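In this section we walk through a basic example: taking a raw amino acid sequence and producing a predicted 3D structure, encoded as discrete structure tokens. The instruction is simple. Fold the sequence below.
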Amino acid sequence: MSRMLARVSHAIAPLERCRAVAGRGCAVPLTTRAVSTASGLAEIAVDDKAASFEFRTILGYRCEPPKGPTTASEAQLKAYFRLMLTMRRMEIASDVLYKAQFIRGFCHLYDGQEAVQVGLEAALNYEDCIITSYRNHCQQLARGSTVKEVLAELTGRAAGCTQGKGGSMHMYKSEHRYYGGQGIVGAQTPLGAGLAFALKYRGVPNVAVTMFGDGAANQGQLAEAINMASLWKLPCIFLCENNRYGMGTSTARASGSGDDFYQRGSFIPGIKIDGMDVLAVREGMKFAKQVALEHGPIYVEVDTYRYHGHSMSDPGVSYRSRTEISDIRGSRDPIDRVKGSIIEQGWATVEEMKALEKEVKKEVDHAVQFAKSSPEPEPKETFTHVFTEPINIRGTNSFNGYTAS
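The resulting token sequence is shown next.
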């Protein structure tokens, strides 16, 4: 495990040297301290058109979680709404492309969970590292890629965000500290701890977020990574996206601790957030970043829900009812919540919101046509971006240095 962490710390892109982070050994509760400001969503300032909003209660374990209300501006809520809606439209377009066989292989969609990534990005910045599982299209979009780049990657085109070589499960944007999707369940959790090790080693005021699902929460390597991160006080946020089902198995059947994943860190603090409330996620992740910088790792559980099945090969209704899905859509949908807040504040009319929705649909439709018509990578690209390093290996066969004595 320690060798893996060390390799990750040397592999990530160089980070700008900033002031060292001090005081990580302090006890929770916390005092407020300055942390680096953001690129992307968190850069949007609170302006004159701002209001106070309550957010869903955040539960705490070994810490005092933030409480409402919070403040959000018109510009912020509209930005959150637009990005979440774009994610939703993009994932629905991916469903259609997959069924038309433009997308092949595995494909795991994120619709329903958009508030998790948008709230996260509203609290962090592009100097904070993120690594996640194979359900990673919307993370790529939130980290600065375009819908065209994501859909082109899904369809295996040269214009894709990883030039058509990564596909659905292996997107990547290292310049914005996004270290991609991992195809092996739970494999990203120790890698995320390694990213946090690198950040601490370099003395920068940033955190690493390692995202995983409730199914991966049962992995032994997660417990090992949490233990090591605790010993070294690494600035790591272990983020469990509890969407209620690990493939087709509900948490009620698979989790001995019930739904209280946020307490599983045992000796590290934890919080549980309503992952369908973007403002709750934003405030919870701001708090989690403070904890990680000042005290070391924290376990964050977001209570969310996926509308599609586990993957495109899973219809998603053999282990849950259509009524269950429609009830969640009707009562907890994260996009509808933000849309309702914007209209209630008088920041847009119903007609203006519909016009914005049409703009997003048009953007995604254009991206679909772009992906369909873009060229595939040239055959010679098979031999590019292949990592090699000289390693001395004791000869075992005639072709690698073995000679009979």
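Looking at the output, two observations stand out. The radius of gyration is 22 Å. The CA atoms of residues 133 and 182 lie 5 Å apart. In the next section we compare this with other chains.
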